[in-house]
Amino acid sequence: xxxxxxxxxxxxxxxxxxxxxxxxxxxxxxxxxxxxxxxxxxxxxxxxxxxxxxxxxxxxxxxxxxxxxxxxxxxxxxxxxxxxxxxxxxxxxxxxxxxxxxxxxxxxxxxxxxxxxxxxxxxxxxxxxxxxxxxxxxxxxxxxxxxxxxxxxxxxxxxxxxxxxxxxxxxxxxxxxxxxxxxxxxxxxxxxxxxxxxxxxxxxxxxxxxxxxxxxxxxxxxxxxxxxxxxxxxxxxxxxxxxxxxxxxxxxxxxxxxxxxxxxxxx
Amino acid sequence: xxxxxxxxxxxxxxxxxxxxxxxxxxxxxxxxxxxxxxxxxxxxxxxxxxxxxxxxxxxxxxxxxxxxxxxxxxxxxxxxxxxxxxxxxxxxxxxxxxxxxxxxxxxxxxxxxxxxxxxxxxxxxxxxxxxxxxxxxxxxxxxxxxxxxxxxxxxxxxxxxxxxxxxxxxxxxxxxxxxxxxxxxxxxxxxxxxxxxxxxxxxxxxxxxxxxxxxxxxxxxxxxxxxxxxxxxxxxxxxxxxxxxxxxxxxxxxxxxxxxxxxxxxxxx
Lengths: 267, 269
Prior knowledge:
Order of helices and strands of chain A: HEEEHEEHEHHHHEHEHEEHH
Distance between the termini of chain B: 46 Å
Oligomer: heterodimer
Strand order of the largest sheet of chain A: 6-7-8-3-9-10
Order of helices and strands of chain B: HHHHHHHHHHHH
CATH superfamily of chain A: P-loop containing nucleotide triphosphate hydrolases
Helix content of chain B: over 70%
Mean pLDDT of chain A: 92
CATH architecture of the largest domain in chain B: Orthogonal Bundle
Number of domains of chain B: 2
Shape of chain B: globular
CATH superfamily of the largest domain in chain B: MetI-like
Shape of chain A: globular
Number of strands of chain A: 10
Low-confidence stretches of chain A: 1-6
Radius of gyration of chain B: 22 Å
CATH topology of chain A: Rossmann fold
Number of helices of chain B: 12
Structural class of chain B: mainly alpha
CATH class of the largest domain in chain B: Mainly Alpha
CATH topology of the largest domain in chain B: MetI-like fold
Number of domains of chain A: 1
């Protein structure tokens, strides 16, 4: 037991984290504790309004696009150099930019930019200051290969990304995020707008990605969580009810609420 | 039974009203075409007003409208970006938005009087710059409103996706959001251009008019619309015919710009 604990390596750690939306009388997240393990997939499940997306969006501070939200507690990011940074202490725009380059995000609906396929993937790279053309080309190709979409796109890199299918667009968005070599990727219901075939392609891709990055995924689809994830957190009304290995959550949950939810008694 | 009867009465009434409205429109277009086309000669386009043509008037009207566009587009777009992207939800933004909407329906003659007091009276002479500024003032609220509305149609996820890739807010607005709203904003600019190219009241006592060809904006400047107003009130047949010709040409210009604007929407969306 002690040995197994020592082997666990964290990349992020949420500690006693509470979050209140601007103008809301009560916090939407209450004292959440959630470790995120390196090179594992952590799923967050729970009924609508439980706060799983809110938590995910706190992990790269995307909430800060809108003023007035309140954070309490800690969300620690374990840096490559071994230091630990509480990302809730970040204040400067440059620090946010660095954070988001390390902690990328994929959204529910595919969000291709109105530009060519190449420029979409190169966009984040250019933002990060890479101007050298051959370096850009190399990293775009690598990212598209990493997102399993190179074969479909290599002959049409100059075409608009808006002409792709929904599933392709979502893989393009993953390529765009992967291009920045993030250490964590946050997925906010990445397949809920897609058909079953595109969904399984994205799931396969996420499973492969964990070789390179640590993944946190919010999903409404419990089969998806059980197929894909190593760890699962069940949330309900702003509380984290239970967190454990995925098999444990789905086969033998400790909490009655978790059991009721995964067996479909509510939600 | 009563319900069905009422339905029929209302159907007949609304159809009649529509026909009356469209009827007047076609009457205007038919009269304009008939009188206009018969009055147009090759010399209408090659000679200046002083010789019975409208060459200088077309050039003058377009010059003022283009200068107005150059002034109004950056100002209006920046204001629209402020309203939607930065000030959204703030009190200041809602005050500016309301004022801008009021400006849009301000009588154009009032704008003319304002610019007269600002740019004509102090200088002591009617001038083309004043005309262009008056048209720009008419155009700005339209551009503000178009930019604001078109940016509102850009999905919020697109902004978030840009931020999540490590962009700063202003970069995402300039490089992604504006690009996504480009077609709508371009169309709005075209339609607002079509709106101001046919304005008379803001020009009556700002640019006034000029019979001769000139590109000197510091003096009286040729205007197609003001000329139509003048020519139509002259007693002689030749002047009136020229007014018809000018009216027809102006209508066609406005129509073409409108059609082009709609064409742009349809093909780019």
